[in-house]
Amino acid sequence: MPIKVIKNLPAITKLAQENIFVMDTERAENQQIRPLQILLVNLMPTKEVTETQILRALSNSPLQVNLTLLHTASRKAKNTDEQYLETFYRTFDEVKDEFFDGMIITGAPVELMPFEEVDYWSELVEIMDWGEEHVYSTFYICWGAQAGLYHHFGINKSIMDEKLFGVYEHDIYNDRPVLLRGFDEKFWMPHSRHTTVSLQQIKENRDLELLAGSEATGAAIVRSLDNKHIFVFGHAEYDWDTLNREYERDVKRGLDIAVPENYFPDDDPKQRPIVRWRSVSTLLFTNWLNYYVYQETPYIIEQIQKMKFERDKNLGAYI
Predict the structure, then answer these.
(1) pLDDT tens-digit profile of 176-213?
(2) β-strand pairing of 3-5 with 22-24
């Protein structure tokens, strides 16, 4: 949460230069507070595992969050009981007249397919387009990030020579945006994917900014300059044993799968994995939730639609 001080205190300027969020008394006294409405578009087949990971990532904040779970109606779930979906999830038709402060779109195990061949692609496109006027900021994860980057900015994915599988160290290219507030100069994050996106196309797009990445992973974190879209190509939300479960699953299937990099001590799958990304997960989701949603979204949530037309004039005070 922000530090509240008297307006025009000289320390405010210095702290702002150090990327520390300080709220003056005038703004604090006029700030209206309500629960945040967050929509989780869960595209993963193991719904319960993914929703638990996201809930855990969002929980390290004093902000009150009302989470709505959404599944795609155009694809019948094979790994989740229909009764479970009917009880805990909603469909797009059931929420399309509502507004949300934030939306999270997860990854999906369909990355080797062209986007247009994914059976729920048309529905996902409809959701992403709807989000332009009904959601203040959207957080895309892994394949979801590739899908969002392709749909909104025309940057397609490409297949890598080998699967990117493990926990990787990343460099921060610009630590000024508050999305990375509190990050160390280098940080670790899991990846599990066969595809990547063009760094050159991201850098050439005037509406996008590459915030973090590495030689091994390529782009790791990208944002649109209006903060409407946050793209994370790794899995900061992963549990300590997620990569292990993926590894064991593929071994049982007889697939040619390498041991996840930088994960097991001495690359020995018999040993307990080393967790290097827990603090990054907390910071990444909490920073997005606070600075890109809570501090910017309108108190009257329906005004999100109106604010869409004002974004180009004012990118916000906390970019």
Answers:
(1) 899 999 999 999 999 999 999 999 999 999 999 999 99
(2) parallel
